[in-house]
Model the fold of this input.
Amino acid sequence: MTVGRFAPSPSGRIHLGNILCCLLAWLSARQKGGKVILRIEDLDTARCPLRYAEQMVEDLRWLGLDWDEGPETGGPNGPYFQSQRTALYQDALEKLEALIYPCFCTRAELHAASAPHREDGLTVYAGTCRNLSPAEREKRAKRRSPALRLRVPDKEISLIDGHMGGYAERLERDCGDFLLRRSDGMFAYQLAVVVDDAAMGVTEVVRGADLLSSTPRQLYLYQLLDLTPPEFFHFPLLLAPDGRRLSKRDADVGLDSLRGRVTAEALLGRLAQLAGFHPSGDPSTAAELLEAFSWEKVPQEDIRLPENLFE
Ligand code: GLU
Done:
């Protein structure tokens, strides 16, 4: 059985990019008769207060995108808030113990020591703390609580994305040892997402193309934890009319402003048109879009929003 999921981070009101993500995840799973899980990715509790999550749940209801398991509905794989699942991340961390080391680098040090930024903003970790002696670790730990990094091999990790096709990285060269826990104790997204998708039985992950480059790291974690990875579908990003990446700060495409001006059906119909599978752009429920949806119709290139989306 296909199990899809929505995994929004409630750090603000959802915007059109998040909605497109939920719509595609919903269509892709439902078209195969599958179920959908809603998981709230609120690891960063300071940036993700509960009221944002509640608003997000309400916005998804308004859009008519339903889920079988998650907040409000409950289910056998809860809790559905990452902030309540940290014991599972801690377990995984313990399983990886032999490959983990403490990293004492400050942000400034990381910046100074690392190779040039990649396109996705990640800096390749230079391995500064990889081979510190036990004595050195002890000394530094007195001054600063460390982050935890995973040692990566010089090995290529590749995948065939269900929408974007082949993608590969050599982890050591392209990414470096990556964080599993920050120095303030917060678990890293890479670890949490793998643990949760596996524990919840997710079989397909639909998300924006900005996360394609995280996938090799996640696949490496699946290998190490002896878990079965899902299938991945990365879809093109929605860009503002001027070509910038959309963010939760783009008030004009946030639901705050849109809910007063358009119906949920108008919004979904227009998004489906931009995503290539609903040429008329006419108002439509998610269920009405099921027949026309196919990954082949969705473009691979980023999608620029037109100036007046609803006029
Ligand atoms: N929580 C992430 C976000 O809102 C998505 C993570 C994922 O789909 O793997 O961007």
Summary: The two ends are 41 Å apart (CA to CA). DSSP finds eleven helices and eleven strands in the chain. The longest helix spans residues 16-31.
